[in-house]
Amino acid sequence: MNYSISLQTMLEDAQRMDVMLHQKRTLTKSMCDGVMVTQHGKTYLSFCSNDYLGLRNNPPQQQVTGAGASRLVTGNHPAYARLEALLAMMKGTEAALVFGSGYLANLGTIPALVGKGDLVLMDRFSHACMIDGVRLSEARWMRYRHNDMEHLQTLLETHRAKHRYCLILTETVFSMDGDRAPLTEIHRLAEAHDAWLMTDDAHGFGLPAPYPNPAAIQMGTLSKAVGVMGGYVAGSQALIDHLVNHARSVIFSTALPIAVVEASTAALQLMQSELERGERVMRYAAYVTDALILPPAQSAIVPIIIGENEAAFAVQERLKGRGILVSAIRPPTVPNGTARLRVCLSAAHSEAQVTELVEALREITVKR
Ligand SMILES: Cc1ncc(COP(=O)(O)O)c(C=O)c1O
């Protein structure tokens, strides 16, 4: 077996096979008006929509009309191309593909890349939807200790050569800890062992990042900092063409409503023109960690580790009593003995509101 097959070679092989079997799919821009569909400037009477009752044109629905079909049938409104071009530009990649949600992006992408006989190595703190995607792929999988590069290296040295492809998965910013993955080191290890790196940027997108993301496969969501709904993968054109043909959550799921796609485009444009929002939230996070003498903030998420479940819950309730909502996160979401408050800051907070939180936390945690 040739162990040094690169991602590009795999994508080219899969594409050759799709063409040979006459099953290569491409996305066609479609504009739907009732049962009429316009593609490439020509209007057709469509029998492709799943709008069985004709309710898509019902007045109350017109604000958020459903797409009526999957993107490969007639759901691929030109609004998708605009959103994907903008995403690719912001991510610095050749192309991007939008999915129905971040969960669906991971669920579709991972099994499109690896399967039986392949190996997935993932950070122990990776999100449930990465785990679900890996399970669906039927690849062998192992988790390395959180951000522990020595452990990742050992797993690569011990297991990589026994498998065809190897995919390394990590979040860029971890959802429960707010810390960042050491992407440069992970990428170096991936290169040294002919493994592919895929990142989940659900909690990083929109915030100033310390360095560019070197991953060939960059997944993210439009439901957090973007504030809408949907997921995406950004990468090479070959990767995106491959996903259009092999990511089952795109192929076999209805496209997002056009209004949702357009809302994401508008939010991304704001994100770009108002970079100050990302800077402000990072300033707030730094203020909270400084004031409470915590490790420096790396993202908009500041964990305050309390330890015991009951104690974390008690702090949550006391904050609530003062009109402040902060979630207490307990096992199994986080490891035993590390129950915590998960403070999520937003550019929509005012400085006075952040100060109010800090003062309440100081009082409550001192009195505890
Ligand atoms: C790290 C991570 N990835 C993916 C997702 C899923 O994204 P979505 O809510 O868009 O399905 C989440 C959501 O909680 C997440 O935290």
| Beta-strand content estimate | 15-25%
Distance between the termini: 60 Å
DSSP summary: helix tally:
12
Overall geometry comes to globular
Average pLDDT, all residues: 93
Q: What compounds are bound to the protein? A: pyridoxal-5'-phosphate
* Computed Rg: 22 Å
Q: What characterizes the major β-sheet?
A: 7 strands, mixed
Kindly name the structural category: alpha/beta
What is the string of helix and strand elements? HEEEHEHEHEHEHEEEHHHHEHEEH
The helix fraction, in percent, is 25-40%
**Low-pLDDT stretches:** none
Work out the number of β strands. 13
Q: Can you list the strand order of the major beta sheet?
A: 4-10-9-8-7-5-6
Give a description of the structure.
The chain has 368 residues and is α/β, with parallel strands linked by helices. It has helices at 7-20, 78-91, 102-113, 128-137, 149-159, 183-192, 237-246, 248-251, 258-273, 276-291, 309-321, 351-367; strands at 31-33, 36-39, 42-45, 95-99, 119-123, 140-144, 166-171, 196-200, 217-221, 231-235, 301-307, 327-329, 339-344. A 7-stranded mixed beta sheet has the order 4-10-9-8-7-5-6, sandwiched between helices. A 3-stranded antiparallel beta sheet has the order 1-2-3, with no helix packed on it. Helix 1 packs across helix 7 (237-246) and helix 2 packs parallel to helix 9. The radius of gyration is 22 Å and the shape is globular. Residues 101-103, 127, 129, 171, 175, 200, 202, 221, 223, 231 line the site of pyridoxal-5'-phosphate.
